[in-house]
Specification:
The complex is a heterodimer of chains A (136) and B (640). Chain A is 49% helix and 20% strand. Chain A has 136 residues and is of the alpha/beta class. In chain A, helix 3 packs parallel to helix 4. The N terminus of chain A is likely disordered. Chain B is 42% helix and 25% strand. The chains are: A alpha/beta (136), B alpha+beta (640).
Amino acid sequence: MENNEQTERTLTKLLIVDDNPRIRNLLRYTFSDGNYELFEAEDGKQALTAILKVKPNIVLLDVMMPGEIDGFEVCDFIKSSTLINCRVILLTAKGQKDDFQKGLDSGADIYITKPFSPSSLIEIVENIVAKQHQQN
Amino acid sequence: MKKKHSPTHEALGTQANYRLLEALSESESRYQQLISQLNEIVFTIDADGLFTFINPAWQLHTGFTPDETLGQLIYHFIHPEDLPLCNQCLQNESSSLFEARFFDKQGHILWFEACLKPIFQQNQLKEVFGTFIDVTRRVKATEDLRASKERFMLAATATNDGIWDWNLQTDEVYFSPRWKEMLGYSDAELENSYSTWYNLIHPDDVKETISSLMVCLEGDNSLYESVHRLRNKSGSWSWILDRGIVLRDANGQGLRMAGSHADITPLKRIEEKLLQRERELNSIFSTSPDGIVTLTPEGRVSSVNPTFLEMTGFSRDELMLIAEHDFTEKMRSISTDDMPYEIDREQAFTLCQIVPVKNADTAKGEIYCQENSNNVRVLKLTPCQLNNETISKVIYFRDVTIETEIDRMKSEFLSTAAHELRTPMSSVFGFTELLLIREFDKETTQEILQNIHLQSASLVRMINDLLDLARIEARTGKEFHFSEQTLETIVKQTCNEFMMQGDSRIIKSIYPKAKKHLVHIDVDQFKRALTNIISNAFKYSPEGGEISIDIQQRQQTDDYDEVGVLVKDQGIGMTEEQVSHIFERFWRGSNTQHITGTGLGMSLVKEIMSFHHGQIEINSQLDEGTEVRLWLKDHSHRGE
């Protein structure tokens, strides 16, 4: 019982936002080591709902998605809200210089272009988690 | 005459003497009166040359009083240069007539015509009677005339002009030797007559030349000027600048006409060359595909060509002679760029085309440019500084709208292509890495490998499609082999060759088998286009439904019919908005995420059909299905 509570407390809430099911699939496998509680969203609108409901620690966010809200806007929303304390990793197939700038402008913590290395992504996420723990 | 009426009776003899004396004195007084009234100067001088008598006319002409004159030597009044002549005449025994210069009291020269009559007594000169007539005015006029004649001759010789002089009363014409020489003739070779000149005039110039001569002769304006051609001795034409004036009598009747005659053939040739050059430059200027604006050294617009006016919608009147600053302002007013138009910088800038804009919002630059690129022009400006007296700057405006659009499309395509390649690549790269760093159970490993394989296949398809598109677009033509084919046969073959993995549906052919339509196609390419359409019908009707193929006919023009292949499915269909994007590269409908595809298939079909000069017709209803028709020109008419 005590062990269980301990485990639950240390689970990091990770929200995966991507319209492509294969990418979501890949990310799911990447973070399938049991340290994470995974949530998924297929577009910006679903992402916003999930963020408010789940209050994730980290969001893995795609930029180009169908629908009215793109990744930049989701990121903007997270960073401008004082209620949400959450790191944003932008994962995007847009690799041009001004896209990168746009990502930084929207307040993303980290900007990663596809294709990406799952092990590097794990490392990045673990670093963030470690920092969050230190702050707590 | 009181004396005449008071005779004395006492001395008749004396009276007679008196009468005689009276008569004499009366006669003398009349002479004296006469002499004093004369305009001519009457005088006497003694043997030594001293004035002994002078009439009042002397003072009238010279200003010297009798007191200042009588007893003075005549030589004092004579111009030193004329003294010898005068002296000589005084020595003459007979009377003499000569002209000599005298001085008046102010020292001015007077010309006197002198008539001297020496009186001798016992061979001794006693005195001299004489008269002077003041001819100053006449001498001066003669002198002026001579001087002006000399000046005229001098001027004519200096400018190498020929001279003519036409006596209007006798109709005689004098042509100077130079006049004739100019036309290659010697003095004797041309007769001095009006007809000589008239006959040499170029037939095309006669009318105008004679009419301007007549205007001058008959009109008040006595200046005549004409440029015409005269035939010279060698038979060619010399351009002559002919000028003259009419001299008239008091009644305005023309007496003579005289003038000069200059050969301006070399000038005329230069003028013609200049005109020709100007015409050439003008046509280049006005037909240039680039807009051109020139500025004067004072910085004012001096010319604009029609292309520039067409590009900008300005009128020539509103631009001509405006200052550079105002010109810049005008250009800024039609520019839609954030970066303001600058005249001295090579740059591209965007203009709203001057077509009436329906929606006011769209007139705002950038959005306008992106959303409706047809209504915007991009001009590239190249200023060119000159060191010239008339033009200090030429500004060229090249319409680079199409190039800019192509550039934009190219970079958009590249960025989209990169994006589309990155997504399947993420699966391949990511999953292989996961397999390398982690242990998975057999089932999961199998699933992951399946995923990698599918995504690699998708990458291969995409690369193939891209290469095909590039090849078809380049249209080298070498890879296409057109031939006359029966459409029914081709459709049948395509359907037979088609196989959809995991789909057992059969394509229902509903066209009459007996009919044969001839089309001109590249068999492989057309089959490929048709296969893409059939494949889409299967892919986008995952829930099943009938897939049918038909061959239809329609009249396109009076000249020929079109025959079309119709592929119809009962699948997911598309909205009108989705249909409008269907030919965009990499575009895929939002409801197709679970269906594999590159987003390039319809672009390929479009390229293939355009190469066949055919058309694609798409009718689709969301959730009901799609109909695609590929139309080709029907060649079977000729065969029938």
